[in-house]
Amino acid sequence: MAAAAAAAAVGGPQQSQPELPAPGLALDKAATAAHLKAALSRPDNRAGAEELQALLERVLSAERPLAAAAGGEEAAAAAGGGGGPGAAEEEALEWCKCLLAGGGGYDEFCAAVRAYDPAALCGLVWTANFVAYRCRTCGISPCMSLCAECFHQGDHTGHDFNMFRSQAGGACDCGDSNVMRESGFCKRHQIKSSSNIPCVPKDLLMMSEFVLPRFIFCLIQYLRDGYNEPAADVSSEKDLNKVLQLLEPQISFLEDLTKMGGAMRSVLTQVLTNQQNYKDLTSGPGENACAKKSHEKYLIALKSSGLTYPEDKLVYGIQEPSAGTSTLAVQGFAGATGTLGQVDSSDEEDQDGSQGLGKRKRVKLSSGTKDQSIMDVLKHKSFLEELLFWTIKYEFPQKMVTFLLNMLPDQEYKVAFTKTFVQHYAFIMKTLKKSHESDTMSNRIVHISVQLFSNEELARQVTEECQLLDIMVTVLLYMMESCLIKSELQDEENSLHVVVNCGEALLKNNTYWPLVSDFINILSHQSVAKRFLEDHGLLVTWMNFVSFFQGMNLNKRELNEHVEFESQTYYAAFAAELEACAQPMWGLLSHCKIRETQEYTRNVVRYCLEALQDWFDAINFVDEPAPNQVTFHLPLHRYYAMFLSKAVKCQELDLDSVLPDQEMLMKLMIHPLQIQASLAEIHSNMWVRNGLQIKGQAMTYVQSHFCNSMIDPDIYLLQVCASRLDPDYFISSVFERFKVVDLLTMASQHQNTVLDAEHERSMLEGALTFLVILLSLRLHLGMSDDEILRAEMVAQLCMNDRTHSSLLDLIPENPNPKSGIIPGSYSFESVLSAVADFKAPVFEPGGSMQQGMYTPKAEVWDQEFDPVMVILRTVYRRDVQSAMDRYTAFLKQSGKFPGNPWPPYKKRSSLHPSYKGLMRLLHCKTLHIVLFTLLYKILMDHQNLSEHVLCMVLYLIELGLENSTEDESDEETSVGGPERCHDSWFPGSNLVSNMRHFINYVRVRVPETAPEVKRDSPASTSSDNLGSLQNSGTAQVFSLVAERRKKFQEIINRSNSEANQVVRPKTSSKWSAPGSAPQLTTAILEIKESILSLLIKLHHKLSGKQNSYYPPWLDDIEILIQPEIPKYSHGDGITAVERILLKAALQSRMNKRIIEEICRKVTPPVPPKKITAAEKKTLDKEERRQKARERQQKLLAEFASRQKSFMETAMDVDSPENDIPMEITTAEPQVSEAVYDCVICGQSGPSSEDRPTGLVVLLQASSVLGQCRDNVEPKKLPITEEEQIFPWDTCAAVHDVRLSLLQRYFKDSSCLLAVSIGWEGGVYVQTCGHTLHIDCHKSYMESLRNDQVLQGFSVDKGEFTCPLCRQFANSVLPCYPGSNVENNLWQRPSNKSMQDLIKEVEELQGRPGAFPSETNLSKEMESVMKDIKNTTQKKYRDYSKTPGSPDNDFLFMYSVARTNLELELIHRGGNLCSGGASTAGKRSCLNQLFHVLALHMRLYSIDSEYNPWKKLTQLVEDMNSQLGNDEQPEVPILYHDVTSLLLIQILMMPQPLHKEHFTCIVKVLFTLLYTQALAALSVKCSEEDRSAWKHTGALKKNTCDAEKSYEVLLSFIINELSKGKLYHEEGTQECVMISPIAWSPESMEKYLQDFCLPFLRITSLLQHHLFGEDLPSCQEEEEFSVLASCLGLLPAFYQTEHPFISASCLEWPVPPFDIITQWCFEIKSFTERHAEQGKALLIQESKWKLPHLLQLPENYNTIFQYYHRKTCSVCTKVPKDPAVCLVCGTFVCLKGLCCKQQSYCECVLHSQNCGAGTGIFLLINASVIIIIRGHRFCLWGSVYLDAHGEEDRDLRRGKPLYICKERYKVLEQQWISHTFDHINKRWGPHYNGL
Question: Which of 428, 662, 1354, 1883 is deepest in the core (most CB within 10 A)?
Fold first, then answer.
């Protein structure tokens, strides 16, 4: 590729110089250049150098006026710089090229330089939307990418790669071993040793070294002059773009230089980085005024950017000096350390006052002046630095970016450029913040930075030499400081904490994204991350940065009315925490994996805790969180939690050494706990007035991309706190946060001051669920990574079957790509195959496309289903239900459990030793009291308790038993029974012993209305109670709140001598108004239960039987000795209770004894066993729901099966079995008149003249028939330039050619009777089989028209859906009164002779067909005919030469019948071997269609002179009389299409038709067909064969059945035809058209049969529809004979022993030899003049194969690579959305406005031309198929699936795709059967815009 050509392509100047005044000048240039080069080559080249400088000064400054015009003076700019700036520019560039080449040709120079290119790197730079590849197997950096060429040239088989569309642009890394492994390099870039490349000769590039500095300086001056500081108005951006457009050629010239390879790049590097050059050329006040002015503009630009130029030891003042003044007004400062305030004020965005706050609290950085210099000082020492400065100023123009990146393969340049980039980093941030186009700019920045920072070596170097980390952290901090607001969390008035404002554009538009992404990128390098983790100053700064996000986006619960405006800022907040806090955290964590990194963790944890302490102080937090507030953003807590987890898991740190004191832990747990309680509140609809967005937050918090950076660390932190804090304190805190303390009372009624009654139950469930999760979850407490992955996967698969990609998406992985689980990595696949089975995609013929799914293996349901994990990971609550339903189904199916199971109990893996304390929660009195209370309440049927609560309570008890301490059994002997419990509820804290402890009395506070109060009648007791109330305030053991506060102050004093303990619900909370507590009174309840006795009674209650529990060990003592307790247990509540009792008995002998005792006592259960209302309310609610659900499912299933069977009868596409004929085809002989049901009014009755019934039909134009070809193999889709598809062998093309040939030589009206049309654009009629009254239909259409609902169809075009089966339709076909099938007319065998029948037929046809009188029926017949005509386009209807002639209509009408018969034949597979009433027969409407067509055709009577029937059945006396006329002759009868003749004859007869007449017509036509076959055969064979046959046949002519012997007939035909010139035209060579084989009798017989078969098939089908006879089934070999006998062509006595001969079917109406002579005579007279055409017309191709779509390649990539870059043939551009037609392979632009014709876009236009309104297109960039049907379109789906059976719409995943043959078959089937409209549901109008 010559560089000049490239320049031309980019729009650069071309080699020829059109603008130059005279050609002499060019020579002159070349001569000058050569002279200068020679001068410079001398040893003493000073003179040459000066001369060159002068020349360059002159040439290049020719542009100067233009530059000034472009930028400075507006007037000049408006005038376009006074005419021709272009010429001067061209001129300058030409000079440069000549000078570089040193007198030679520029092209040769380019080629010469390119020869010295050591191309070890590809370095191809691309912009957005380019298709590139990424291979994870070969990549070292996660950002590695390859261009398509390098990718396909390398070997990546079996690698984990994908194709992607570049978002921001990128560069190819092939050849760069820092970024990818060398094994993946392509053939071109496998490292060459530098020795092969010869040294660059000095003189080749010598001129370049002199010319380029000037050229680049000139460019820089241009940029300086063109720049004007954007004012408030945006118009200045346009000016910038104008300048850039003018500079296009120059930058392109530079870009071309970079493409010349390594030699030229190193020269450019020298020029760009040489500081001396820069100094000499830009040294400011030089000799000319121009340069001086330019330097001033540069200084002003620097200054206005808030930057100083340290060289001059100046810091500019705040006031702007006017741009015009030449001496700058400056204030001198001693040093470069201006105060911060000044710098800020020059930042435009900081001017509004509301953000002054951020300024006050500036964060102190680790060293005094570093901050200042990072932010505000820029000093340019080389061209490169100033070029980058202007690139940033002009907001990264694409051209400049590409030029700067193209240079990167030069190593020296790469380092220099990276340093320059880092130096400008702060400036980039400032420009980005101000930019209006921040999105584009972000992409361009990342385009550059990702190339620089992905390289570990480079990143390390810049970190060490340029303080990269300091710069990045500082810049991020500065950026966020511009949008801080005061935090309102906790203490609104006095809070000192500031947070980012999520509503600011900076956060909302993700403007910070490029900087954060760079930061994450460099932290992925170990060497850089280590520096970060070692630098205390940086860590402090970073924690400050993170604390800006702590507590952002605070939600306050709306208590009164609904919030007016739902803010959507929450997504910005979640994105910001994930990107700016969590991802850097994961990056750092990935480097803390081994013991040696302990120190890093200690550092992070230390500064994290300090930051947290500061935060608590800033928000004035003591111990109670503010009510009704929640923030989901606690990044500091999460940093702390994740580093703790890492420390214990990977670094073996002692947990206690990094934990703070108890008080800090108490504070730490509050906010995460607040979030968990708020989640429960949100799900209980307590936040409903805050709008939908709060639900959105709750969902995002647990969503798969966020959960492991949000909820998981929160729960882990709570687990850590729980394991270290006092358990009673923790448990009581939980219930208080969840606001359910008041509910936990023994009393049946209570009052809750903080919660409405309707929320109590769900909040209690929430609190218990939280405790279960807290105690069961082991994600950070000792599970290995593989176990975690497995648990996550099982949870997701249990909710629903998943596709591979959705699983990858749903499984949380560390967001940092370098961490352990990479999607598609080994462990993912191996775990997946261990837990799931792959269900390949299934295809229901009428159903939706399914994808390949993974479903859990049976043993996973059996052993691993973990409801806790499912609850933790569900975004929607319904998923939990779905998982339980699937689990239930599994248990039923596998016979493990018949009923409704409870969530299974799963034994947990053991805890890591550091977290053992967590289990103390299960062994604390507070929890036991709660469990006891809840069990009691459930047993007593108190309100608001659900089965779910019971389930959780039992789960917690079981967990406690599993995790009890071992020493219990010894202590039980020493304790003297129940005496010890006088001081409190329970004696100890061990659950095992507390379970058996009986509680006799409980004192409760209840509202005065409660039933308990009435019971306390003895006055003495109540007065006692009141007396003891005084000290109950202090001596209360179980008031949760008091408990918690007391523990908090560490005053724990348990020595109270209160015998019966009192449960007192909290009356007032800190925030409730003082007077709001209701009137409470105290009651003492007699309980006399222990947990064990409650459990046994529960068992009775659940089973509904008295004494249902019997201890199993009484029968089988083995159970206790060798307990086989499974790790995993299925069952319901009853089994759960039994399991717990067994475990309790196992753990202590005492418990065993007590259980036996309780069972012996057989106490009647406390609640009487009549079913009370309360019981109905609680326990049965679930069952009732379940029953309702089952009932509903049963109904649905029944409905579905009904619907299914209905669908099968009504619209099934391919299931010939289960024939349930619709009313239409019923054929009982006794039925005199057909009865129809109207699906609208429901009445049934016959169709009558005045109230006709009609069939619901869909009329559509079809070109499927036209797509048949004569070869079986379908054509392949072209995937190279060579392959092409030509349409001239299609059925439609062949028929077109034949018709136009006939029309050339014969009379038009006769031609239109000799053929059929409708191969393209034929009208196909199909019905669902339902009928309706036509007047009902009209009113139905009226109601549809008034219906405002948006339908998928257009009522104005007559479209509707069948009212019964909802199938799409657009017309109604009237049913002809009378019997459906003409049974009675052909039951009697007829004995008339052939001759009589022929006469009858002729007479019947001669009768004029009068149109019936004006009845409703006839009107409808007319209107449906109009519909049929309008269905297809005019060009498919009008073939006559005289427009509008009646012959046209005649031809169109019988062709409609032909089209429908031919299509039905294709639906049956192209033959009638299968017989029977096929699927199409089930709902065929041909009978009704025939009536309509016949009625209309009889209006056009054929002149009896021209009626072909005469020619077939009568001899003409004088043959020559016909030829005398001058006009064109009639079409010879042997050229007629016999099938068309058949349809004409039948449709011309009055309906209904007699069977005998039908048979007669068929017999007569068969003689003609057979003669045609013989004639065609005679033309096909060679001269010798002909003479041989002529001879043999002549010998047999006088035998008895001569007229039934093909040899005789053939010889006669040969004889007759040879009179003309038919055989004489050419030499024998070309006659052998088929093959040179000799014809054997067998092969001739086969040829004749094949010639006649298509006619017999169509005729049999017609007979089947007209007379309702079934078609016999047969083998393919005998199809001919079976059909012939079925049609009555074969005599009944015909014997089938000897080989079947087709001629035996002949029955001649007149002597055969006479009529054949007559027929041949017509041809003879034609061939006299046109022998060639005569022969072509005789040979009719009748063997069409079934139509097929194009054959697609196995791999999608082959299609994509060829078509996505292919240019459109119409507009020669590469389309944005390319598509290809799957019927004919045409390449089209989807939605392309370039190819629009009369408001039709190209796809729509093509669908009309190719498929008569039906188009099937493959969208290349999306791999999806789109169907266009008339004015609607739908997305069909994809026929290419990846290795996991999934579609990849829009190629988002970019994995390799392979053809799915089944899907493609389904598509083809729908195309052939015309069922797109019925099967695909989602249609929309395309308004011709596709």
Answer: 428
